[in-house]
Amino acid sequence: QKEVEQNSGPLSVPEGAIASLNCTYSDRGSQSFFWYRQYSGKSPELIMSIYSNGDKEDGRFTAQLNKASQYVSLLIRDSQPSDSATYLCAVTLAGRRALTFGSGTRLQVQP
Amino acid sequence: DAGVIQSPRHEVTEMGQEVTLRCKPISGHDYLFWYRQTMMRGLELLIYFNNNVPIDDSGMPEDRFSAKMPNASFSTLKIQPSEPRDSAVYFCASSLQESAGYTFGSGTRLTVV
Predict the structure, then answer these.
(1) Considering only CB atoms, which chain B residues are within 8 Å of A102?
(2) pLDDT band at B61 (very low <50, low <70, confident <90, very high)
(3) CA of A1: how far to CAs of A24, A42, A89, in Å?
(4) CA-CA 20 to 30 A from B83: which of A24, A55, A77, B31?
């Protein structure tokens, strides 16, 4: 089992729809969770961080964390073509305090 | 702030040659990370430093790889000798804390032929 798992996609949604991106992690002791966006040929950029169970909203983005299910998700409301990118989930695993990244989910927003 | 600065942006070298990648972290960030990204393996942590001291180098593939941080504003990742399988994008990132969000540099795309 991978330590941080994401569906590689592509996830295709129409413009204006809600995109839902999911991530599971193997370590029940993980404490910090992040979502990064990476455009093709560019470096990852931080979108959201979440540390406690529940939802955290920032503009059109909502991060959801469920530690019991070892699951973190990112919702993008009113998706725009400019949201088309690869979204990376990152987790701090117990025993390795630097971030471990998932392989990413490619999102395509169709105009 | 200029962000995390990496050089060169692109490097093409022949197998067996030495390659040196450079990174300048954001001023005041105590943590510096080196990651490698490939299609097959995604983003992998190679090594990271705290206050110029290496903390975890378990991701360094083999003895051909070495990293240094002689001061708070500069780090190098060296590959000697380079091999075609080292071809990847190498990212440097810095952060105020280990478990905080990282700021990534633009990366160095390395091609070993």
Answers:
(1) 42
(2) confident
(3) 10, 28, 16
(4) B31
